[in-house]
Amino acid sequence: MKRSQDEVDTLMNIARVKLREIEKSLDQIHAQKICVRIIGKLDLLPEDLKQSSYRLMKATETYKNFILNVCLYY
C-alpha cells in the first residue's frame, strides 16, 4: 500500500476506535458467544492495535454461536 503517513494514521485511529467499541461490548459478546476474529497482517499493526486484537480473539476463541470477522489490512 502506498498511502501517506497522515492517511495511515487516520486509518489506524479509526481501527482503534472500532476495536474499543467491540471491547466495550464484551459482556454482550460473551452472552451471545460470539467468536471475534481479527484478520490481516497483525504483525504490521501498531503495538496497541496488535494487543487489543489478540486480547479480543483470546477472550472469544472458544465461542461457536456466531463469528465476527474484522479485516485489518495494513
Structural overview:
The model has no long low-confidence stretch (mean pLDDT 94). The protein has 74 residues and is an alpha+beta fold. Strand 1, helix 3 and strand 2 form a beta-alpha-beta unit. Helix content is 55%, strand content 16%. It has a two-stranded parallel ribbon with strand order 1-2.
Number of strands: 2
- Overall 3D shape: elongated
Largest sheet: 2 strands, parallel
User: Could you give the order of the helices and strands?
Assistant: HHEHE
Our count of helices gives 3
Q: Tell me what portion of residues adopts beta-strand conformation.
A: 15-25%
Q: Which spans of ≥5 residues are poorly predicted at pLDDT below 50?
A: none
The separation of the N and C termini measures 7 Å
Let me know the average pLDDT: 94
Cα-based radius of gyration, to the nearest Å = 13 Å
Structure summarized in a few sentences:
With 74 residues, the protein is α+β, with helices and mostly antiparallel strands.
Q: Which helices and strands, and how do they pair?
A:
Blueprint: H1 5-24, H2 26-32, E1 34-39, H3 47-60, E2 66-71
Parallel strand pairs: 1-2
Keywords:
74 residues, alpha+beta, two-stranded parallel ribbon, 3 helices, 55% helix
